[in-house]
UniProtKB/TrEMBL annotation:
Family matches, as Gene3D superfamilies: 6.10.140.1330, Jelly Rolls
PROSITE patterns referenced in this protein's UniProt entry, alphabetically: CNMP_BINDING_3
PANTHER family for the chain: SODIUM/HYDROGEN EXCHANGER, SODIUM_HYDROGEN EXCHANGER 7
Chief location: membrane
GO CC term (a single one): plasma membrane
Pfam families in the record: cNMP_binding (PF00027), Na_H_Exchanger (PF00999)
Source taxon at top rank: Bacteria
Database matches in SUPFAM superfamilies: cAMP-binding domain-like
Domain Cyclic nucleotide-binding per the UniProt entry, residue ranges: 708-822
The encoding gene: apnhaP
Location relative to the cell: Cell membrane
Membrane topology classification: Multi-pass membrane protein
Name recorded for this polypeptide: Na(+)/H(+) antiporter ApNhaP
Length: 837
């Protein structure tokens, strides 16, 4: 085909793509549905003009369209890696982990069940061999997220629903295409009835091999990109090469799933890229991939739609019955998963609950699209597949795709409306009123300044001010006096607004580079959890999310075990350094929230709500400071190094801002500006590096914090330091149980604990000790000790404690003081000890 005609067709398709988006918005239909309809019309029109005798003028154009070199390899090797890779880069992976069980169930189990459900149903209803039927099942089991997500975003559907749909659609592409490759091999080899054991045995190899290949390719790419960190175009170029090399390498070299390799590569870059690449470079890279994916998604859809008239050219009456079988079997499999397995997993507390309206929307939102058509095209192109199999694969896959697009796609918005997912909840409605009131008050202040600056006509200002004032008064009264807003709802609304402002503050800090890219994703995730926690469970949900943001997570505990059991310190060093930086970033952000409470929230929700929020903010700051103090005690000087790094980065940001302002004002030229920015970039690269953490436990400095040991000589401190062990406990952890054997005495280096003895509760803090009374006193009541804050403990075993008690008078004095504090006779306590020893 002439290159000129190919170029003309592609350029014309871009015009169609550009026109499709506003048309979809006007018709309130999914963008992909409009693309599919336009593609079908173009393809049908080309066939019509070739066969009609009305005119021959359009025959060259029709031939160019029908003979356009559309091959399945173009879809699978050019467009599909782009779509999958961009989807992984745009995912909030850590947020999706909250719903990983339903996502994995829908992406893997639902695909497998749909494949076998459709396959066995077709095997019963058609003369096709089982292998061919299972192949069709794999082709139609992959869903297309673009149409559904576009609808959800246009009507402000719950974000959790969008996350589940996106996660499912991304991963089920990988699972379905892996199954497609498996059963395609059976069909081409002429194996009519494959053994399920053979299929199941090959599936993990495809998955694991692809995942390993993608991870390795991404790690190499990130290493190369980190070498080019000062050159944004080089970073973007390497990222463009990554998915294609991962796909081809996995498919052609390893023999594993290329789709899985692309997904693994994208997920790896998503997790590691923000911490290794400059923030602005990462943002620009994401924007480039968004544009590439938009073009790829539109082209793959419209090109696939051009094929639909040809794929349906040989359709017969009985084929419509088989299309119905495919539709019913696919729906039945999805119903079993959504309304059977997921509720059962929720009952077993394995999966978070997915509400019934969500499950219904997911069921009806399982649209099929370009990937299904591309896989069907790959079958029709194969010379090793029987002709009747190729005909039915093309017809059934195309018919099912058209049903989902033209029936489900056009009615999905109505179904979502019927389910009530397009309506704001009462608390969101109330929140919208608060937003209007706050916004109008701010607008009034800004307009007042503007009219004063420009000396506008007094009568005009007064008349407009009256109109605006009436509107503002109505908005504020509606926000304050709305009967459907209870006091607890006002607190919830205030917390949502506070968490939203915290998120905006973090974004500004990241833009100004006062919060590093390494911490940006974690702090933003914590802010999102605060918003959703407040939205779903009010004050309790907000506080739970706040505690979680500073808690020692499972990764930290696992790293601690590696350090203590196997002496592998690298993971714990990295996580501890991350915790230092995270706490400093949180403290930096939290100190900006007080003015927002007083300036915005108090005006709408009143003094009482603002006071409650201020108290909650103070407690959050106290928790962060406590956790930071514990780390400072353990690693003195490291927090100061991070603060020094923060000051350097802030200084560089201000310096950059000044250079930009001077250039915009024409005070310096492009040459001078470029030279200054090169020097600033060099100094910034030095300042971005995080100082190394000396992980040697600073027990000597901790020991000196305790009054009983403050006057010990250096030799005694070293001996005591070797005897003491360090233990970190999270808030809520049980340190001692009433029925547990007591083998240690504990000294609190930082944090706080709560003791319950005979129904009486007392609290101990920094520099206190516990456990000594039960060791020294006969028949002492046993206590339960629980950490009420992240706590660092120094632990001494019983034998060492008894030796030190005889040698260190200050320790005996401390024991007496602690006994008196708890109402125990210190002389009787020490007398019991002397009697035994």
């Amino acid at each position: 085909m002439d290159i000129v005609l190919i170029t003309a067709v592609i350029a014309s398709l871009f015009v169609v793509i550009g026109a499709a988006e506003p048309l979809a918005a006007r018709l309130r239909l999914p963008y992909s549905v409009i693309l599919a309809v336009l593609g079908i019309l173009i393809g049908s029109g080309a066939i019509f003009f070739l066969r009609t005798d009305l005119t021959d003028a359009l025959n060259p154009v029709a031939e160019a369209i029908l003979k356009f070199p559309i091959r399945s390899n173009v879809f699978l090797y050019v467009f599909l890696p782009t779509l999958l890779f961009q989807a992984t880069l745009g995912m909030n992976l850590r947020r999706m982990l909250d719903d990983w069980v339903p996502i994995m169930v829908l992406a893997i189990l639902a695909v497998i069940l749909a494949t076998f459900s459709v396959g066995y149903a077709l095997s019963w209803a058609s003369p096709l061999p089982l292998a061919a039927c299972l192949l069709i099942g794999a082709i139609v089991s992959t869903t297309d997220p673009s149409a559904v997500v576009s609808i959800f975003r246009s009507i402000s559907a719950p974000r959790r629903l969008s996350r589940i749909i996106e996660g499912e659609s991304l991963l089920n592409d990988a699972a379905a295409i892996a199954l497609f490759g498996l059963f395609m091999g059976f069909v081409m080899l002429g194996i009519p009835d494959p053994k399920l054991g053979d299929a199941i045995a090959q599936f993990p190899v495809l998955i694991m091999g692809g995942a390993l290949a993608g991870w390795l390719a991404a790690r190499i790419a990130v290493w190369i990109m980190s070498l080019f960190s000062a050159h944004e175009l080089a970073l973007t170029s390497v990222s463009v090469a990554l998915p294609y090399l991962a796909y081809i390498g996995s498919e052609q070299i390893i023999g594993a799933s290329g789709v899985i390799a692309v997904v693994a590569a994208g997920l790896t870059l998503n997790l590691t890229g923000p911490g290794r690449l400059p923030p602005h470079a990462w943002v620009n890279l994401r924007e480039v991939w968004d544009l590439l994916a938009h073009w790829a998604g539109a082209l793959i859809f419209i090109l696939a739609a051009l094929l639909i008239p040809r794929l349906l050219a040989d359709v017969r009456i009985e084929d419509f019955a088989l299309i119905g079988v495919v539709i019913l079997a696919a729906f039945a499999a999805r119903v079993v998963i959504l309304f059977g397995l997921l509720p059962f997993l929720t009952f077993l507390r394995v999966s978070p609950a997915v509400e019934r309206p969500y499950r219904t929307a997911i069921l009806w939102g399982g649209l099929r699209g370009a990937v299904t058509l591309a896989l069907a095209l790959a079958v029709t192109e194969s010379l090793r597949v029987p002709v009747e199999v190729k005909r039915l694969v093309g017809i059934l896959a195309t018919g099912f795709t058209l049903f989902t697009l033209l029936v489900q796609g056009t009615t999905l918005r109505s179904v979502i409306g019927w389910l009530g997912l397009d309506r704001l909840s009462p608390i969101d409605e109330a929140m919208s009123r608060q937003v209007v009131a706050v916004a109008l008050q701010t607008v009034r202040e800004d307009v007042a300044r503007t009219t004063e600056d420009y000396a506008l006509t007094h009568d005009v200002v007064r008349s407009e001010a009256k109109v605006f004032g009436d509107r503002l008064e109505t908005a504020v009264k509606t926000a304050e006096d709305s009967e459907d807003i209870l006091d607890r709802d006002r607190i919830t609304l205030g917390l949502i607004a506070l968490a939203g402002f915290e998120r905006d503050t973090i974004l500004n800090r990241v833009h100004e580079r006062t919060i590093s890219a390494r911490m940006a994703e974690k702090t933003l995730l914590d802010a999102d959890r605060l918003i959703e926690g407040a939205r779903s469970d009010g004050r309790a949900g907000y506080q739970r999310a706040a505690r979680r943001s500073i808690a020692y997570g499972r990764a930290f505990r696992a790293a601690g075990l590696l350090h203590s059991k196997l002496r592998l310190s690298a993971p714990l060093v990295r996580l501890t350094a991350d915790r230092f930086e995270l706490l400093l970033s949180q403290r930096l952000t939290l100190r900006d929230l007080g003015s927002f409470i007083e300036g915005r929230i108090r005006r709408i929700h009143g003094r009482r709500v603002a006071g409650l929020l201020s108290n909650m903010l103070s407690r959050r700051i106290e928790l962060v400071e406590t956790a930071l103090d514990g780390l400072r005690l353990q690693y003195p000087g490291y927090a100061e190094e991070l603060e020094r790094r923060f000051i350097k980065r802030t200084t560089l940001r201000f310096e950059e801002r000044e250079y930009e302002a001077m250039r915009e004002d024409g005070l310096i030229g492009a040459e001078v500006y470029t030279t200054l920015m090169h020097d600033l970039t060099r100094r910034r690269a030095t300042a971005e590096g995080r100082p190394p953490l000396d992980f040697a436990v600073k027990r000597f400095e901790l020991i000196k914090q305790f009054p009983p040991f403050a006057d010990l000589d250096a030799k005694s401190v070293r001996r005591l330091g070797r005897a003491l062990k360090t233990r970190y406990v999270n808030a809520g952890s049980i340190i001692l149980r009433k029925d547990g054997a007591l083998k240690h005495v504990f000294f609190i280096a930082s944090g706080a604990v709560e003791l319950e003895i005979a129904g009486q509760i007392s609290r101990l803090g920094r520099a206190d000790m516990f456990g000594q009374v039960s060791i020294l006193m006969k028949n002492a009541p046993r206590s339960e000790v629980r950490a009420i804050a992240p706590t660092t403990l120094l632990v001494l075993d019983v034998a060492q404690f008894q030796i030190l008690l005889n040698k260190i008078p200050a320790l005996r004095s401390a024991v007496r003081a602690s006994a008196e504090k708890r109402g125990i006779d210190p002389d009787a306590l020490l007398e019991d000890f002397s009697t035994e020893h």
